[in-house]
UniProtKB/TrEMBL annotation:
This is Uncharacterized protein. PANTHER family: 3',5'-CYCLIC-NUCLEOTIDE PHOSPHODIESTERASE 1. It comes from Letharia lupina. InterPro entries: Pdiesterase2 (IPR000396), RibonucZ/Hydroxyglut_hydro (IPR036866). Residues 114-134, 276-322, 414-491 are annotated as: Disordered. The lineage of its organism: Eukaryota, Fungi, Dikarya, Ascomycota, Pezizomycotina. GO terms for biological process: cAMP catabolic process; negative regulation of glucose mediated signaling pathway.
Length: 566
């Protein structure tokens, strides 16, 4: 459902629409080789209402250029703020409709916290200081991903700079490959008019790589506040699995990364390299014809790989030994509702990994699915199924993603009490609640035994009166230890193999364990060839495999400029 251009995400148990907890804006959806469409995502809690410091960037291969494009499309349709009686009425009406969409669902949202004004402690609003502004002309955006944002300038670039300097506080980096950090590195030149350093939040290994290979006064000036740098950037080193010194109850282990959002990080594997500092795990290319040919002649490294190699063993290999490349997966938690979203960096399947670590992420996710708080997963699927295992370069194809989701489904089923598995009960889960704005490719699901429109919601509103029971604080290490001992995920050789023996509409589960879970595909690599877009083929292959497996999840392919509400 849309209200004045804003999507309301889910229906509550009372049948009323509930507002989305997250807005996710896709700045870059691809995996190369086109440099203006590589991984870059913005995330905010909708309850923060575009407040100062309320936007989180997850990776920034493409960043400021994409923000400028959004303003180029939406600024011409903006409304001058309080410039006339008519515009004032229009603004008031616009806000009333948006507020009503939230209030009737039991969530009180106050528009405009710090977009253009801050309170001085006496209940009076004072204008923000805008460097370089002679006569600021505030405007209200009414269309596009930044709808309902008030901006101070008339120019596209002025407002883009304002957005980046004032609203984005933290850059959550999954791993240090160029297609995930190049935009950020170049954009640091515009941080000089900010009031505080921007934060890079990442695993220590990622920060070490950025310090050593990017901000080293050779590749790029040292923009950080360490080792005598300029001071535009500050580092936040995350603890894998969450820092139990932070948070309490369901939020224990999560650390605040921006206004309204907290994060917990797990490391995952993204391919392998022969020597330290050399890798073919990510790259920006998509076809890799010459490299593919060379690699296909090498003996496979996967057959002799131990299945339960621990992450702690991945460091300290001799220089001529294969070693895994680290990436990350982040759980982001909305402070206002307790809902979460899971965002992966580049990742390879556990079935091919030197250091299989996805299973520990799925163990954590399974408890959140059963609690009804995990609203969606953003994960890569770089190649079509025609790509061989030997030339995946640390990425996923549809057959591998389905195998990983099957692992997740098994964990969801294992955690669910036996009497709650069949369809006799109403499972506490969210409905099909990801709504994509323009630019996001979605397909309707078919072959369901139950209509989505007729299905009652299984998601409950999180409030102090109705706490959500997540995994207990002392059970996570046991889950991770168990996951490390589990066998690898079995990957079918093709979609055809997956479909065999799955005539039952509920598959082997007895029900669809991932019913309603939104799986949004990122990092699709372009082929630069005629024919269907790779994303279209990947989506078809995923949906065919899911139909056979009957997992219950819904797939979408992200597009640059899309706004996703979860």
């Amino acid at each position: 459902m849309r209200v004045n251009g804003v999507d309301s995400a889910n229906a509550g148990a009372d049948g009323e629409s509930k507002p989305p907890a997250f807005q996710i804006i896709v700045l870059g959806a691809g995996g190369g080789p086109n440099e203006d469409n590589v991984t870059g995502i913005l995330v905010r809690s909708t309850a923060t209402n575009w407040a100062k410091g309320s936007v989180l960037a997850v990776d920034a291969g493409t960043h400021l250029a994409a923000i400028i494009r959004i303003f180029q499309e939406s600024l011409p349709e903006s409304i001058p703020v309080a410039s006339s009686f008519e515009s004032s009425v229009s603004i008031a009406s616009n806000r009333a409709v948006r507020r009503a969409s939230s209030l009737h669902a039991g969530v009180s949202i106050t528009r405009r916290s710090n977009s253009l004004a801050e309170h001085n402690g006496h209940g009076q609003a004072t204008p923000l200081q805008h460097t370089g502004a002679i006569n600021p002309s505030p405007r209200l955006l009414t269309t596009g991903p930044f709808a309902d944002l008030e901006v101070p300038f008339e120019s596209v670039k002025g407002n883009a700079a304002y957005f980046m300097r004032n609203l984005i506080s933290t850059y959550l980096i999954t791993h240090p490959h160029l297609d995930h950090i190049s935009g950020f590195a170049i954009n640091t030149a515009s941080f000089q008019h900010t009031s505080r350093p921007k934060r890079i939040a990442a695993l220590p290994s990622t920060i070490d790589a950025i310090k050593t290979h990017i901000f080293n006064d050779v590749i790029w000036p040292n923009m950080s506040d360490e080792d005598g740098g300029v001071g535009f950037v500050s580092y936040m080193r995350l603890v894998e699995g969450g820092n139990i010194q932070f948070g309490d109850g369901e939020s224990r282990g999560y650390i605040e990364v921006c206004d309204g959002l907290a994060a917990k990080c797990w490391s995952v594997s993204h391919g392998q390299c022969m020597r330290k500092h050399r890798s073919h795990g990510s790259g920006s290319g998509s076809t890799h014809e010459a490299f593919n040919e060379a690699m296909s002649r090498r003996p496979s490294q996967h057959a002799a790989t131990p299945t339960n190699l621990q992450h702690s063993q991945s460091h300290g290999h001799p220089p001529d030994m294969m070693r895994p490349i680290d990436s990350s997966a982040f759980f982001l938690r909305d402070d206002h509702t307790g809902y979460e979203v899971l965002i992966f960096g580049d990742v390879e399947p556990d079935s091919l990994s030197l250091s299989p670590r996805n299973s520990q992420v799925w163990s954590d996710a399974a408890s959140k699915i059963n609690a009804g708080v995990l609203t969606g997963v953003l994960i890569e699927c770089s190649y079509e199924d025609s790509q061989s295992d030997e030339t995946l370069f640390g990425h996923l194809a549809p057959r591998h993603l389905i195998a990983e989701l099957r692992d997740l489904a098994e964990k969801v089923k294992a955690l669910k009490p036996r009497e709650q598995e069949p369809s006799q009960r109403k499972r506490k889960r969210f409905s099909n609640g990801a709504h994509m704005r323009e630019g996001l490719e979605t397909r309707s699901r078919t072959g369901r035994t139950t209509s989505q429109s007729g299905r009652k919601t299984r998601r409950q509103t999180v409030s102090p009166a109705t706490p959500v029971s997540l995994v207990s604080e002392d059970s996570v290490p046991h889950e991770a230890a168990r996951a490390a001992k589990e066998p690898k995920v079995n990957v079918p050789h093709s979609i055809h193999e997956t479909a065999q023996g799955s005539g039952n509409m509920s598959g082997p589960w007895g029900y669809r364990p991932l019913e309603g879970l939104q799986v949004i595909i990122i990092h699709v690599k372009e082929t630069l060839k005629d024919g269907p877009e790779p994303g279209e083929t990947i989506l078809v292959q995923l949906e065919q495999a899911e139909k056979a497996e009957q997992l219950g999840c819904n797939f979408s392919i992200s597009k640059a400029g899309a706004s996703i509400w979860l």
